[in-house]
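Quick start: what a row looks like.
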Amino acid sequence: SDARRLLLMAADGRDGELPFEWRYLWAQAETSLAVLGQPGERNIRAVIDPDGESIYTFSPERFARWNPMTIPGEITSTPLVSVETPGRNPREALVSPDGRSALLGAANGQRDLIETSTGRVLDMLPAVEPGRPPFVYSEDGRRFAYGNDDRTLRIQSSQTARTISEVTLPNGVEQVAIDNTASRIAAINRDQVHLLNAASGEPAVQPLRHDLLDVTAATFDRPALRLATATMDGQVRIWDVQTGRMTSTFTAPIRSIETIRFGPTEDLMHLRNARGTDIFVNMQDGRVVAEPTGAWSMTSDWSLLASSDGPLRMKIDSLQDSK
């Protein structure tokens, strides 16, 4: 979370379906503080929240919440909350940004909203076919949005499970994005992106179209004034969310873009495709500013980017002046 505490997954080395465990450790001391879970328990997912106050583990047998500040340096530890989940077999887990709720997706399509302080199930969401796009939380963690097999998009309160709005889209929902103010939702539907009012589900503007090219990603900028969309062929478009007007467009040198992030400046953007290739581009002309390889990290203001493509080589790029 804060570069001092890490979660490490370790397998036991046997062939077939490998049981594995999550170890909680201090990065600087390189010593394991605890193994999270009971002996032989296979944790599917482990998450440490951004402020480092809680660790969550999800396994076929149970959901557990741990206090990292009081975990003893022993082989096993006792969680703060432990709830049995027989038969759930969660395949995906997402903890809200405020740490108050979590969304669990099971292998059979069942999806549950749980309260992390108690492990209580707040709502059993409609089951969906495998491969349905994941849930999306608002930045404050108070709302989440998701698509259903019946072509509906639902927005709910993560604290009470109350349905805030629900809208039916003619061709269903393939992906969802929610802005930082939790006021707008972008629902991707093949070559269209529907901008909706999060409180009412009503369209905010006319659908944004990509001329028969399937949209693969969408994201809002931090002030929630612009929306960026990308297509299979690498075309990126920037939209004014208040008017629905396209303000700029460029074609990136990578295809099948899955992740878009606006930078802190007006012209910098981060793109990642399905193969895990990352590039930083100038939004004005699509020029590649940096293309990190291997492991990489950057400063919070996006001024410096450090990357390493081997044990003996590290490169530092300035994203501001393209050096």
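That is the whole record. The chain is about 0% helix and 50% strand. Confidence is low (pLDDT under 50) at residues 1-5, 9-20, 26-30.
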